[in-house]
């Protein structure tokens, strides 16, 4: 019996050791220190300056007016793979939204490559506005470039970790949308290269702090909560149960009130 226990423990320890070794070796060196550390609720520096598509210096404060939430995308314009997939999927989701960037929300796309120029940003903007196919409101979708220092600072503030691969001559990074409140605090991170329009709308309503969306949107936000495991908004059964319970109580109260208001028939007098 002791021998069985001993070999069982030996097997478990060996399996655990092997799994750790493979877990470490399964991460390529070029992807070390690449990912996202969510910093929900943390503010970004609105005084940080970048260059817009026209080559003009603009502070991030220009896009955060206290009224409109902002979606931030961190990409680079000459990326041969992931950035294009991200922007294509994001644009497809935008086309499914009734809202148009510029009025209820704004978009800021920033290149993480300090070598890229406003001219390149202009070409990228034209390509995606053509793909989007709608006229945007003022400052609807902005494509920026900037210095290494300012880019790194903003990336750290939202928890976006990336690195340049000298061998591949490319940036290693993840794909996500950063949804910020109108005053520049990180509200939600949506991961991937395809985004459910419902999740995108709920994230904007949540970040808008009651300033955008209809009562229907607020109701949906009550019914759904963000699932950090599934990286999406999931139906929240507890809230629905609370809502159903409140509706039941209200219905019973209304029924009692109506019954109390009903006139009872006067009994006939005996002859």
Give an account of the 3D structure.
With 271 residues, the protein is an alpha+beta fold. The protein folds into two domains: 170 residues, 3-Layer(aba) Sandwich (Glutaredoxin), CATH 3.40.30; 47 residues. Helix content is 41%, strand content 19%. The protein has seven helices and 13 strands. The strands form five sheets. The chain has a five-stranded mixed sheet, sandwiched between helices. A two-stranded antiparallel ribbon has the order 1-7. Strands 2-3 form a two-stranded antiparallel ribbon. Strand 10 and strand 11 form a beta hairpin. The radius of gyration is 27 Å and the shape is globular. The N and C termini lie far apart (99 Å). The N terminus is likely disordered.
List descriptors.
41% helix; Glutaredoxin; 5-stranded mixed β-sheet; 271 residues; two-stranded antiparallel sheet; disordered N terminus; alpha+beta
CATH superfamily of the largest domain: Glutaredoxin
**Oligomer class:** single chain
Count of alpha and pi helical runs: 7
- Distance linking N and C termini: 99 Å
Task: Characterize the overall form.
Answer: globular
CATH first level of the largest domain: Alpha Beta
Which class best fits the helix and strand makeup?
Answer: alpha+beta
Helices and strands, in order, run as: HEEEEHEHEHEEEEEHHEEH
Strand order of the largest sheet: 6-5-4-10-11
The CATH topology of the largest domain is what? Glutaredoxin
Low-confidence residue ranges: 2-25, 215-222, 236-247
Radius of gyration: 27 Å
Instruction: Write the CATH architecture name of the largest domain.
Output: 3-Layer(aba) Sandwich
Please give the domain count.
2
Helix content: 40-55%
What is the overall pLDDT average? 78
Biggest beta-sheet profile: 5 strands, mixed
| Proportion in β-strands | 15-25%
